[in-house]
Each structure stands twice: as C-alpha cells, then as structure tokens.
C-alpha cells in the first residue's frame, strides 16, 4: 500500500491496522527469544539441582 492511500482514507482505520501489524511483527521475535531463554535457564537449573 502506498502512503498517500493510507493518509487519505477517512478515519484511517487501515493505517492503524498496518501500524499495529508492524508492532506485532517487531515484538514476536523478542518474545520468542525470551521464551527460549527461559526454557534454557529452567533446563540448566534442573540439571544443576541433580548434581
């Protein structure tokens, strides 16, 4: 979509939707890396408690 189309629309619902989609796409990799990191820490702590 072209910027002029997004700016000219009444109410700018499409532009708001595009912006929200961009924010979700930016956040998902950080959330996934954080969850993987937490899982690795849990596995590490479980192995340390067995030793």
Written account of the structure:
With 51 residues, the protein is mainly alpha-helical. It has one domain (3-50). The chain has helices at residues 3-8, 13-50. 86% of the residues lie in helices and 0% in strands. 0% of the residues are buried.
What's the short version?
The chain is an all-alpha fold.
Spell out the key features of this protein.
mainly alpha
- Mind summarizing the main beta sheet? none
Low-confidence residue ranges = none
How helix-rich are the residues, as a percent range?
over 70%
SSE arrangement, N to C: HH
- In whole angstroms, the N-to-C terminal distance is 58 Å
- Using the CA coordinates, give the radius of gyration: 20 Å
Count up the domains.
1
> How large is the count of helical segments?
2
Let me know the average pLDDT.
Answer: 88
Residue share in β-strands: under 5%
What is the count of β-strands? 0
Structural class designation = mainly alpha
Describe the global form: rod-shaped
């Amino acid at each position: 979509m072209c910027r002029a189309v997004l700016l000219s629309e009444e109410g700018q619902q499409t532009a708001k939707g595009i912006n929200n989609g961009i924010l979700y796409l930016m956040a998902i990799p950080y959330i996934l890396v954080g969850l993987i990191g937490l899982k690795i820490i849990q596995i590490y702590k479980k192995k340390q408690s067995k030793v």
